[in-house]
Amino acid sequence: MEKRAIVAVVLSLAVWLLWFYFVSPPEKPGQKVTQDGTPVQQQAVQDATPKSVPEKKSSFTDVTKSTDYAGTVNVVSKAGSQKQYRVQTDRYTAELTNKGAAIDNLLQRERDIQLVVKDTPFKAEGTFDFALHFNEREFLEGNALQDVKWNSRKISDREYSFTTTLTLNGVPVRVEKRFIFVENSDYLRVVFNITNVGRRDVTVPNGYIIFSPGDMMGPRMDYESRYNIIGSVYYINDDFEQPGKNGDLNDPDEWLERENGTTGWVGVMSRYFLIIMMPEKSSGTGVIYDNREGTGYRTGMYMPVDRFKQRETVTNSFKVFIGPKNKERLVAVDKSMAGGADVNKWIEPIRDLVMWSLLSIDSLIGNLGWSLVIFSLLTKIVFLPLTQKSTQSMKKMQELNPQIQELRDKYKEKPEVMNKKVMELYKKNKVNPMSGCLPLLLQMPFFFALYSALINSVDLWQAPFIFWIQDLSLPDTVMQIEGFNLNILPIIMTITTFMQQKLSSVDAASQQQKFMMFMPLIILVVLWNMPSGLVIYWIMQNMLQVLHQLYINHKGKIEAQES
Question: Does residue 19 surpass a pLDDT of 80?
């Protein structure tokens, strides 16, 4: 293979490495109102004057507190006993609890997956508590509203109300949290009615309330895997954001991250599912999230409110998406949620084709591993004309190699003239040195799309193949040796790459030969911790190419004997 072809391979590999460096998941981050029938006048929060998010330079330890609002909610109305309610829709089976007025369990019925996860290595509540906080210290440490037993009542099979009363600056304020489940939808509604039931107006501490859906998202997974990550997500200033954690536990100024801007929604994302909390009639003025290593992923939205007038009710109504990272289902709730599908827009069409193909084959085979093998065979057939052309081109290059070597010897002191003469020779014999790399370049989008499918699609989660390969979405680790994962498939892939290279090698300069020898090792490093499904696809492509090359070589020998 000539230098131009070598350069093409290097560039392809560079694109591959860069794409996985910037797009593949990072290493696993450190883990972690009583109803009395009194008519009230409702006022939406969007009428309040927007305020800016507190400057980041202020630590949560410096939050201003009034004398009788000592940084925590003082609850004055409590229910006597803990109660639970079971709600079922076509999408979920939910269990509500009056402790903290939260969703204590949520089973996604489509796949029988529990999305409320409490047993984790993180310091996290785990429930979907839809908490409201009156300052940033509470946002990190929680308040009494999360632990107290709220008064509760059933309004209908799909609607439940939880209420309690707290004091702000000595004034009693009733808080109602209402859950409304929607049939045939991936979302529910959570409505907050905050009513001043005192005899005077009350100023809201800091001029905002922080709302957040929770600090974890299921399903329960092996959090040691770099792929099974949890993260904060939000939509601010018309952009989807997915930040990572990097706060130093020894520096309180890094425990919180804030961002000003028009906020459409906030949430928590797991590898396959999302919970998104989006205001229905307004927008937030900023985002705040827990940036500490080893804690949960609580992400909140600042909603501005200055004061509660006597007998006034301020209402915040949220639409809450809880479901898979499926773009179609996300957009059905709101177009701004499209980014939650977590797929590159250029790869998305090919990814959809890959998933449709795999699931269609699986409907007949019943094993996604074997479906992946068949899919590999089908893609090989599709690319066969290109492979044939590439093989023919490489064969011609082999035949021209003696002439090329003569040109190198003749013009070794004049490299520019040598390259010109070599290209003239290629042109005369209708040989394209780049054609050998063309099948590889054209298959790259399929690798990227398959990688995206294996990472984000719950259809491939825990999908078994054969023998030790029991989850196509993860590396095929058979054991750990002092923290190092021993994976078998990447080794098989490297062997098949060497075999393919040996059978299709073209005589070349020693430096080029050395590079080609090291290339399988480079690929081994890149694919070592990739999902086993992706490595199986690569192995199948290699094996099919080996068989094809054996056929070509055998055919060539027969033609040589006949001539």
Answer: no
